[in-house]
Amino acid sequence: MMPPKITAIILALMAAVFYAVNVPASKILMRSISPVFMASLLYLGAGVGISATSLMRRSGRENSLSRRDFPFVVGMIVLDIAAPIFLMKGIELGTSSNASLLGNFEIVATTVIAVFAFGEKVSRRLWLAMSLITLSGIILTFEGADSLRFSWGSVLVLLAATCWGLENNCTRMIASKSTYQIVALKGIFSGTGSAVVAVICGERLPGLTEAVCAMLLGFVAYGLSIFFYVRAQNTIGAARTSAYYSAAPFIGVLLSFVMLRESISGAYVVALAVMIAGTVLVVMDTLILTHEHEHVHTFGGITLKHSHPHNHYIGSKTHIHSHT
């Protein structure tokens, strides 16, 4: 049987692949669907699809959500209403490739919140990676020295990534509960909330064919992606799941060039190089597994029994730890 951490890594990578389809495919569908309705249909597709899937599964031992989880569920739903609306508006105003690459800022937001709000441990290497990813986002957001203007499409994508970073940490607090319940609630309530916003904004209802296509995309890019993400997060934590999920923007960029024939600017190439460097550092950091073990020290006849964390490096027969 595959070790739980390896299974979690595979699930996180699968989540990244499924989500990568979202940005270029949404850009195409928004030729006939308005941005806020697009966000609504994506999440509704996720909620309906996962709910249907849950009816066909065998009964499991997953814990159901309780009243104590209510604040995190509400936070998750509200943030999942805001984030895709920001993203769709950002895609509409900017390029699909920029939006895909800027999606990696979600790692920064997730990690910073995980550290300061929930006490997750982060290495110096990961902090350096966060700095590089942030720098890449600044490069993509700034339109050029001559214009001295910001790209509002990029700013909106960064807002979406920040919302999802906070939402990841809300989900982290309930990740041990039923994944089917979590994804169904995310999809149905966030999708409905976005639909209400779309109606208030006076957006035109999409056609039936376009709506079905958007919901199918939502089931794959949001439903299955979120499902695998939550399962991985329950094992390896919010920050490290986001690290493996960082493959999504690069896959999305490739799909943008193939599907939309978007051009590449000089600033984009520089930002891509910086983003790749930051992502490599993130992945390297996740290859270090930390755990605690118990042992005994004897000093002058006095025995002290305690535990401390130490690191094991994958691919090496040795490990390194220090203590006093």
* DSSP helical segment count: 13
**Low-pLDDT runs:** 289-293, 309-324
The strand count comes to 3
Task: Record the strand order, biggest sheet.
Answer: 1-2-3
Number of domain units: 2
Could you state the order of secondary-structure elements as H and E? HHHHHHHHHHHHHEEE
Distance between the termini: 37 Å
Q: Roughly what percent helix?
A: 55-70%
From the spread of the alpha carbons, the general shape counts as globular
Q: Largest beta sheet, briefly?
A: 3 strands, antiparallel
What radius of gyration results from the CA coordinates? Answer: 21 Å
Which structural class fits the helix and strand makeup?
mainly alpha
Summarize the structure.
This protein has 324 residues and is mainly α. It has helices at 4-20, 22-29, 35-56, 70-93, 96-102, 105-118, 124-141, 152-172, 179-200, 208-236, 238-245, 247-260, 266-286; strands at 288-299, 302-313, 319-320.
